[in-house]
């Protein structure tokens, strides 16, 4: 399996708004903490180490899809 | 009752009155590792001189958790049953965040093994048993108050300078094994690098005596109410002694924290009362480091002298006993002339692999307990927070991954992939009931050719052992196969396995293993 870097969320604008909304009212520290939890939750959902490693590399800017 | 530290007698060594003949093996350090090696070598018919600068067992308990594998090794050395009888057997660990249990583990979910998953037993008892055993063996010359202050390599042998209460003397041996602990003076004398990680975090380690009911389990807390923001551990030992570890932070003052007026109120908060006696207190920082290699010409390093880890996976003493296991039979064969010195390269390879695994696990646990400020802390707290709400986060909570024997990589060993993974080459041969005893008791002298459900070919240098499969043998050695043949090393590690090998094939494999090629 490899990391899906093609558009995959049906309502991308809607999700983006929901992400911002989830952070509303949080201090910067609370937002960081929530993001950390979110990363763990999503990473577990993905499960595959190969895919996660590609995601880490992409997020760090070390690889291009 | 506090432990009764009886000094072992010092006897003036013969070397003070004139040179001693060159010995086969000198072991420096009579901690658990040095003592175990002396006994293992004696079991293989090799004499040794053991030198220790001190004359009592470990002051303070230090190691308390002895793994199933260590108990099997101690059993072979003649003190396993004593250790289990005296020790507190346990297998369940519980981890709490604040007041809620977030993770637990059961270390031995399956039956049919002679030894339990773990016993807790103070290091001084283990050393006491090993000293008594060593003193009963004529091949072991155990010398207390003999401090090694110099070491030199001479190609085909090595020599040491030894200080005693009556003056100093020199001693030579074909091999010197440094079992002189985490601060290893021999490592320093040879100027060897000892690289790795140092954790700044300070931990208070205490043993207390108290009455308390309940099952002996390992309890570990992150950020408990009674010790705000830090971690704590409570674990039972024999004689109503309990081990308590308290994380203190990196900026704690070790001298001040050691004082009873500081320690007692802290512990009272953990156990909920002050009705206990303080047995031993110490403040530690922990390191994860190892030597680049463990065989340095004629000087071999094992135990804490070769590698140190933080204690949260109980991998120090247990890892050291696995060094003994991997070295003893090989060094014996080299000394007795049945294997070339090159065979020791296989010991080095295997135990560097084992040390790396122990260091990796211990460093990860320590990092989880004391994350660096910033993003490490952020993710650590995220895991703890989620663990109360989502199952997936629970196994990420890391309060120590307890010692298990590693499976040595043996890609070239004859193997049959369809046989059970538990007994693949490189793994310790899994125990199983055998007649009125146990399989582990029948393995571990020399090389054993184990036939499960089939006859084995006659191969010089191996002892045949034919077993009929009970349920455990079937599950652990056969799977769906009708029969299989296992070559098991003297350290009970599986060297190779076949369905129906020819004698020549086994003999060639045996030779490769003895010469350190496999
Ligand atoms: C708080 C704490 C908790 C621990 N808990 C556990 C645990 O639960 N399980 C576990 O497996 N491990 C545990 N360990 C680790 C364990 O204690 C060590 O790994 C173990 O003692 C190593 O044994 P060793 O024989 O290599 O070294 P040591 O036990 O340190 O023995 C070295 C010996 O060499 C002698 N010596 C030193 N210098 C010289 C010299 N110049 N000449 C002659 N002799 C010398 C010393 O006197 C000593 O007797 C713990 C350690 C600590 C500190």
UniProtKB/TrEMBL annotation, chain A:
Pfam families: DUF2783. InterPro entries: DUF2783. This is DUF2783 domain-containing protein.
UniProtKB/TrEMBL annotation, chain B:
Keywords: Oxidoreductase. It comes from the Bacteria. Signal peptide: none annotated. Residues 24-351 form the FAD-binding domain. GO terms for biological process: 3-(3-hydroxy)phenylpropionate catabolic process. InterPro entries: FAD-bd, FAD/NAD-bd_sf, PheA/TfdB_FAD_monoxygenase. One of its GO terms (molecular function) is 3-(3-hydroxyphenyl)propionate hydroxylase activity. The keyword Oxidoreductase applies. SUPFAM superfamilies: FAD/NAD(P)-binding domain (SSF51905). This is FAD-dependent oxidoreductase. It comes from Fertoeibacter niger.
């Amino acid at each position: 399996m490899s990391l899906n870097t093609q558009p995959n969320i049906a309502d991308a604008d809607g999700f983006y708004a929901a992400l911002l909304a989830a952070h509303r009212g949080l201090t910067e520290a609370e937002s960081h903490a929530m993001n950390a939890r979110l990363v763990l939750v999503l990473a577990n959902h993905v499960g595959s180490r190969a895919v996660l490693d590609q995601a880490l590399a992409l997020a760090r800017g070390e690889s291009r899809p | 009752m506090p432990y009764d530290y009886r000094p072992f007698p010092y006897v003036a060594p013969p070397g003070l009155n004139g040179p001693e003949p060159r010995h086969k093996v000198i072991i420096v350090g009579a901690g658990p590792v040095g003592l175990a090696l002396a006994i293992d070598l004696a079991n293989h018919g090799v004499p040794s001189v053991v030198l220790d600068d001190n004359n009592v067992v470990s002051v303070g308990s230090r190691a308390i958790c002895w793994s199933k594998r260590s108990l099997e090794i101690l059993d072979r050395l003649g003190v396993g049953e004593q250790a289990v009888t005296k020790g507190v057997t346990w297998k369940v660990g519980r981890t709490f965040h604040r007041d809620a249990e977030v993770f637990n583990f059961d270390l031995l979910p399956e039956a049919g093994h002679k030894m339990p998953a773990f016993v807790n037993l103070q290091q001084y008892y283990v050393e006491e048993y090993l000293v008594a055993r060593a003193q009963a063996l004529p091949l072991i010359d155990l010398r207390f108050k003999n401090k090694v202050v110099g070491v030199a390599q001479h190609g085909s042998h090595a020599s040491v300078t030894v200080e005693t209460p009556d003056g100093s003397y020199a001693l030579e041996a074909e091999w010197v094994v440094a079992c002189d602990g985490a601060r290893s003076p021999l490592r320093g004398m040879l100027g060897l690098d000892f690289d790795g990680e140092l954790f700044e975090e300070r931990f208070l380690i205490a043993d207390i005596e108290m009455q308390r009911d309940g099952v002996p389990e390992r309890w570990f807390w992150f950020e408990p109410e009674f010790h705000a923001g830090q971690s704590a551990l409570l674990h039972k030992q024999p004689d109503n002694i309990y081990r308590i570890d308290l994380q203190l932070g990196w900026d704690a003052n070790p001298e001040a924290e050691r004082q009873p007026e500081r320690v007692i109120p802290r512990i009272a908060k953990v156990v909920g009362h002050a009705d206990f006696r303080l047995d031993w207190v110490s403040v530690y920082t922990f390191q994860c480091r190892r030597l680049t290699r463990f065989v340095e010409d004629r000087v071999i390093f094992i135990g804490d002298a070769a590698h140190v880890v933080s204690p949260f996976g109980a991998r120090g003493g247990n890892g050291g006993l696995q060094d003994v296991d991997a070295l003893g039979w090989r060094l014996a064969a080299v000394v007795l002339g049945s294997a070339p010195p090159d065979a020791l390269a296989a010991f080095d390879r295997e135990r560097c692999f084992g040390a790396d695994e122990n260091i990796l696990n211990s460093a990860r646990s320590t990092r989880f307990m004391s994350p660096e400020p910033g993003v490490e802390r952020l993710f650590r707290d995220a895991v703890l927070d989620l663990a109360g709400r989502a199952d997936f986060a629970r196994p990420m909570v890391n309060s120590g991954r307890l010692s298990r024997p590693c499976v040595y990589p043996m890609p070239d060993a004859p193997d049959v992939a369809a046989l059970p993974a538990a007994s693949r080459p490189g793994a310790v041969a899994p125990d199983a009931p055998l007649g009125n005893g146990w399989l582990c008791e029948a393995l571990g002298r020399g090389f054993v050719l184990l036939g499960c459900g089939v006859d084995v070919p006659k191969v010089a240098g191996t002892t045949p052992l034919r077993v009929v499969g009970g349920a455990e043998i079937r599950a652990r050695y056969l799977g769906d196969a009708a029969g299989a043949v296992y070559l098991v090393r003297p350290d009970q590690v599986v060297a190779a396995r076949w369905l129906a090998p020819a004698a020549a094939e086994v003999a060639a494999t045996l030779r490769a293993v003895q010469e350190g090629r496999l």
